Amino acid sequence: MNVKDIFLTMEYGPAPESDKNAQEFLDQHDRRFGLFINGEWTEGENHFPSLNPATGETLAQISEASTAQVEAAVAAAKSAYPSWSQLSGHERAKYLYALARQIQKHSRLFAVLETLDNGKPIRETRDIDIPLVARHFYHHAGWAQVMEQEFPNFESIGVIGQIVPWNFPLLMLSWKIAPALAMGNTLVLKPAEQTSLTALLFAEICQEIGLPKGVVNIITGHGSVGEALTLHPDVQKIAFTGSTEVGKKIRRNTAGSSKKLSLELGGKSPFIVFEDADLDSTVEGIVDAIWFNQGQVCCAGSRLLVQESIAEKFYAKIKNRIQKLVLGSPLDKGIDMGALVSEEQWNTVNGFVERAKAEGLEYWQVENCPTKGCYFPPTLFPYVSPASEIAQEEIFGPVLVGMTFRSHQEAIKLANNTRYGLAASLWTENINLALDVAPQIKAGTVWINTTNVFDAASGFGGYRESGFGREGGKEGLYEYIKPKSIKSSTGFTIHNKEVNLRSYIDRTPKMYIGGKQARPDSGYSIKVSNPAGQTVGEVGEGTRKDIRNAVEAAHAQSGWAGMTGHARAQVLYFIAENLSARAEEFEQRLVEASGYSGKDAKLEVEKSLERIFTYAAYADKFDGRVHSTTSRHVTIAMHEPVGILGVVCPKEYPLLGMISLVLPAIAMGNRVIVLPSETSPLSTTDFYQILDTSDVPGGTVNIITGDHKSLTTELAKHFDVDGIWYFSDKQNAETLEKLAADSMKRTWIESEYDWLQNPLQKVFLRKATEVKNIWIPYGA
Ligand code: NDP
């Protein structure tokens, strides 16, 4: 064939990358690897093979860590922790920088090894995975350096257990290890059983740079090894990326243990194409969205939503484009798609496709797909119903499902019609439309006219069942630090002397739902006594139905979230004004119902007023950021309200505790269901008169009185409650977190806090918000 012939066919010849160095690396280890514990290599008792999914050949034998070896790894991390955490940020930065440099120096070996082990194209490992890995270590070297200045009231957590999946083996490792080390933690990481090799090469790099022993430990094995790690009492935090199913299991396993948890789980992300989009660019976008890494991407744009007016034209373009996708040896630099990670994954993907075909759904599949190895043809189901299995479930393979919409409101509804909320991609030439739609999509990342771009400077993570916590960006670092101290206030003296019940009127304050007083559905009331045993009132005994009604009222009040911070601040100041006007009455109530001295009651009301002012002030000041990502984007980290929060108040500080919890939540645009102090609920039930007169829209704050245990259970089970702040009896924490796993609610549980000083005032604001990163193309 001469040059002219080549130009006529425009076909690529093979361009294989040599795997010589990677094979030599495997040979040097006799194709058998141990565990990296306390800076040494230890043989596992059993081994299992790691396969090349493109050829089926066995690459190496990997050790299965025993329970004793998991123990040893955690013990090593624990003993390394004191000295590592006490190093200066600068010292830790030097180690992270050295890791970054070594990764760059060995980048090709890493890329080839990853391709052999995972089956993904060398083009991706070489140009995307490994450069991003190095970028993560560089970026976090910087965070180590400036930690003391940037997080002055925070410290490291301790031993971190990290579990990563097989789709981006080394990249996920770097997302976990770099921030953990930067913030002064030590760790034990378990890679996925299918793809351990690059993590083991990384362990060698840790040895090469002289990282102190025990700071990083890598243990290999199956899910049971990960499970043992999550259950270990000396592991203070778990960072997990993987399936929603295992994420929920980890949430349940760690419930009530006080372990910090970040979960980056599955997705079914919408890829929305409006009629004014540049269709040719959008087609390239869709190729990246769903056929990058064979579609084995948690944020893959796997649900295509196309405006009806252009659907046919757009589908014709996609059909034409996918026929040109080249599948073949992942080591060939000219191929677009390699093999799925394993036969098991191939069977899972194929199962979804066969069931969809059996439903009679129209589909197109690429024909020239290799028949040997775990290759799966790019597949498109262009017209599916939003309720069908393939439209709802994460397939985690190169399978795209399509739906059409007419108006942009319909697009938003369809986009949000999922239990997930990881990412979304919008395509339009109209910036107004894009910026109107982006905030309305429940997803942690929204890409405008782009997709699947990542950077260490930007947070990544989900809403809803896509998990919680962020990785990357400043927001991601909070996952690896904790406030320096959470102490109780020195406290007021609570008297149990009988008092003259001046303000006591024989009435039963009702509950407060949707801006109206509401009788308890049960028809029962509970007697409220003061510490001296005098009856000071009665409150309604709330039940499941009251919680349901309150959640419905909160749900209906979506307007509160849409108000500007300035407008919300006005309402909050008005609350303070009205409380101030009735300060004496509230003081009296504290004296009579809660056993306060007059002086302490005055102080609690004063502090409450001050706190309302604080959060009114922050309503329009707790800004997001614009991240300095490496691509040409403005990456806006927006603060959004979490949604509907259950707020379970402490027994002590019945007024101040409630205000300190409710005010930051509503200042950030959340709606709340408040369970007042179990022993002293009357200061909160009195408070609804203040809410009524302060222009707080009905449904923003709902108050349900009664037994915390049963009401918290109802809140935890409710799928429309997005998070629960729980400051009541610790013994209910385990049940709460177990139940919260079903809908992946965010839970925040503390048993003590200094309500008088409020040292964590900004932490409340962070807990009241989700960070959404919106990537907008910018500059030339
Ligand atoms: P898993 O969630 O099972 O695996 C992720 C990691 O968790 C692996 O290291 C795994 O170990 C480990 N693990 C498994 N069970 C436990 C446990 N009980 N406790 C602690 N760790 C555990 O994903 P799979 O690999 O099994 O893939 C299944 C499906 O999950 C895929 O088809 C895909 O849909 C989805 N998935 C989603 C990902 C995402 O990023 N959203 C990533 C990977 C998969 P080991 O692999 O050794 O068993």
Automatic annotation (TrEMBL):
It comes from Leadbetterella byssophila (strain DSM 17132 / JCM 16389 / KACC 11308 / NBRC 106382 / 4M15). The keyword Transmembrane helix does not apply. This is Aldehyde Dehydrogenase. The active site is at E264. Belongs to the aldehyde dehydrogenase family. Residues 41-486, 524-750 form the Aldehyde dehydrogenase domain. SUPFAM superfamilies: ALDH-like. The keyword Oxidoreductase applies. Pfam families: Aldedh. GO terms for molecular function: oxidoreductase activity, acting on the aldehyde or oxo group of donors, NAD or NADP as acceptor. PANTHER family: ALDEHYDE DEHYDROGENASE-RELATED. Keywords: Oxidoreductase.
